[in-house]
Amino acid sequence: MSSPSNPGRGRPPRLDRARTLRTALDLLDRSGLDALTMRRLADAMEVQAGALYRYFATKQDLLTAMAERMMDGVADAAGTCDGDWSEQLAALARAMRTALLAHRDGARVFAGTHSTGENILGFADTAMGVMRAAGFPGDDAARALYTVANFTVGHTLEEQAALQAEDGGPADPDALADTVTAGAYPHLTAGLPALTSTDFTRLFEFGLDLLLEGLRSRR
Amino acid sequence: MSSPSNPGRGRPPRLDRARTLRTALDLLDRSGLDALTMRRLADAMEVQAGALYRYFATKQDLLTAMAERMMDGVADAAGTCDGDWSEQLAALARAMRTALLAHRDGARVFAGTHSTGENILGFADTAMGVMRAAGFPGDDAARALYTVANFTVGHTLEEQAALQAEDGGPADPDALADTVTAGAYPHLTAGLPALTSTDFTRLFEFGLDLLLEGLRSRR
DNA sequence: ACCTGAACACCGTTCAAGT
DNA sequence: ACCTGAACACCGTTCAAGT
Question: Which domain holds residue B21?
Fold first, then answer.
C-alpha cells in the first residue's frame, strides 16, 4: 500500500481524499466543469498542483471519485418508497436525476466517468433486486437497468445543458424558436411549446413512464 | 457577411469549412476526441492553428458543425421503412445510433454540442411528423422525441465508452466482474452475463422496444 | 482576402529536492 | 511522508504583420 497514512511521525498531511473531493465539488458548483482544473483545485486547497497526484493518480481518477460521491445515498430511495416494483424503480431513477442535478455539470461528470465504487454498484444492485423480486429474469433486469440509467443520464445531460443556456447561446430556446419557424419544419412548429418548455421534471416523468409502461407489459 | 469567399481576385483559399470538417472527422476517427486539437487539425490541413479561426469562431463551433454533419441523411431512415409509425420511429432511432457509431467518440461529440442545423432539425421534424400522423398531439410527440433521442445518446455514449475500454481500464468487463463477485451484490451477480455483455445492439433494441411499447399503450 | 508568426494565458503531469 | 518548485509538452485563442 502506497496510499498516504500517518503512523505517528511527521507533520499531519494538509491533504486527504475526502477533503479534496469536497473542495472539488464546491469548485464544480461555483465554476463549472470547464473551470475545474487541477491547478485551481490546488489553489483552493492552498497547495501546489503536483501535490494532488499523491491522492489521485490522474484528473480522470478525481472525476470518477466525484461521480461516485454524487451517488451517495441514491440507492436508499428504493427503501423509502412504499409502492410496487415499478414505483420503486421510478423512485431510484428520480433519485439519480436529483443527485446529478445537485451539482453543476453533475451529469457531464457522471457520463464522463466509469466508477465501480460501492455507491453505483449499490444503486445497480438495488435496482436489480427490485426487478428480480418482481419476477424479471436477471438478464431482462440488467437490460432494463441500463435502459433506465442511460435515459436518466441522457435526459439530465440535456437538462443541465439547457439550464446553463445563456441568451443567444447554442441552447437558447428563443433562438431555436426563431430558427424553427423560419425554416420548413411544420411538425416542429406544431410542437414548439413542448419542445422549448423548461418543465424538465414533466419531460423526465413522461420518458420514465414510457419505460415503466413498457416494462409492465413485458412482465 | 464576413464569411470567406473568393470573388475572382487573390490566391484561392487553402481552407474551407467542408474540407476542414472532413479532415476533422478523419482525425477524430484516427485519434479520438481527446486528441482532436485545433493545432493537430491545423497540421493535418498544412496550415497554422490561427488560420482555422477564419472558418470556425471557436473549437465548440467546429464540434457543433461536426455533430451536424454526422446527422446527415439520418432523417431519410423514416422514408425507407415500410412499417407503421412505431417501426418508422424505431428506424429513426436506429439510424441515429448508427450515425453516432460511425465515428469514434461520435456520441461524445454529439452530446457535447447543440446544433440547430438542418440535419438535426430535419431529423426532429421527421420524427414529429411520424408521430403526429399516428395521432399523437404535438406536445406528446415532442416529449416522446426527446425521450427517444436522450435514450439513444445515453446508450451510445455508454456503448462507445465500453468499446474503447482497454484491458484494466475503467470499463473493463472482467475487472467489473471481479469487483461485483468480490462484493456483496447478489442481484448484480445474478445479472452478470447481461451486465457485461457486449451485444449492444440487443441492449439498444431492448430499451427501444420498452419505449415504443410505452408509446403504443399511451396512444 | 487569407494566412503566418508570435505571443498570451493557460493546461495535466512528473519528479528531484527540500523539510 | 508529504509537499514545493520547476520543468515538460502541450492547449485555445488573438492579432499585427506579411503576401
Answer: 17-57
